[in-house]
Amino acid sequence: MLTGVSETALMTLLVRANEARRPDALIDDPMAIRLVDSIDFDWAKFGPSRRQDMAIRSLAFDEQTRRYLADHPRATVVALAEGLQTSFHRLDAAGVGHEFRWLTVDLPPMIDLRRKLLPPSERVRMVAQSALDFSWMDKVDTDHGVFVTAEGLLMYLQPAEALGLIAACAQRFPGGRMMFDLPPTWFAKSAGRGLLRPSLRYRVPPMPFAMSPARLARLVDEVPGIRAVHDIPFPAGRGRLVNTMTWAVQRIRLFDSLRPTFTLLEFG
């Protein structure tokens, strides 16, 4: 089965599926439920898994991808280190048409698992290699637009690797976009020290890479090919208190060092 960083794909899948099962679910994700029900795994290893964060993250990525596809209906979406995300299936049912193409880039064990568990589609291609092996870029159809997602990836890379990946995408996909998420620095440091343990049997892997919103904004001046950097607000969650707190931390600069980020890059 999966180990290390790859195992986080199971944890995020479980959290998303549990949210999708709720009668007041934030996310409609029947494929996530199907996957959890079909995988023989000791899910209790991950500890408490009924929370909103992974669904909110996926909703943010879905929304920005959907906006791009509305203007580029035949674009290629490149999902880097996709894990057990089910984004293609949600977007395919989201009213953006059925002309967009999908390219999954992930390590061989994850690609094998996706091929076994997910229904095939002629619009989906899978490449079994690291996202840091840039040869996957040669397989991307750039004729109709490119949207690159790195959901839950960059924080697990070394800083030079993460910035190198961003720079390579900016160079190869002019006119495209890239979206990624990062934890706040304090959270990444806690993971690096082994302090984040949702259960006695599971420890969150180290996260070498994190950036503040202000630092991310400077990428437009530092990385050739980046035309704009957008700090994407969190989608609404469930509960007035949650939404009030989210609204505050995203609009008051005092909290910038404490909050995670969703970042959208536009390539020129």
Automatic annotation (TrEMBL):
One of its GO terms (biological process) is methylation. Coiled coil: none annotated. It comes from Mycolicibacterium hassiacum (strain DSM 44199 / CIP 105218 / JCM 12690 / 3849). Transmembrane segments: none annotated. GO terms for molecular function: methyltransferase activity. Keywords: Methyltransferase, Transferase. It holds the Pfam family LCM. SUPFAM superfamilies: S-adenosyl-L-methionine-dependent methyltransferases. Gene3D superfamilies: Vaccinia Virus protein VP39. This is Leucine carboxyl methyltransferase family protein.
